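Appendix B, Record 12. Input sequence as logged:
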Amino acid sequence: MENKKTQFEDFKINIKLILSALWASVMFLYIYGDYFELYVPQKIESLLNGQNLLNTPYKLFFATIILILPSLMIFLSLIMKPKWNRVLNISIGIFLTLFTLLVGASSFTEWRIFYVMLAFLESIITSIIVWKAWHWTKK
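Logged structural output:
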């Protein structure tokens, strides 16, 4: 039997707060990955001379849309009604899980192993988002 002095207070955290915190974690990992990539040899030179993956306005626009999703979900997870919140978290979570796994799988080089690790972690977190949203408790 546990002593009352060894018991810690705990309370149930609202699913909206959990989802928002998970999206914030994904966003931080995205930012870390992009920042650390600046240390990859010849990365800065390729950015300056336009010889990089995002070398057209349309590719840059597409990348912007991809990166907007988790940052918006931090806020939207808190304010949306449960039905649409659940649908959006599941659909965007699945999309970003698959997209991030693809990015990670295509980044297997010595200088981008950090990117593979971050992509793996991002995929785990977005999978947790999908799972949490899927198992959202009903009244």
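Residues 14-134 form one domain.
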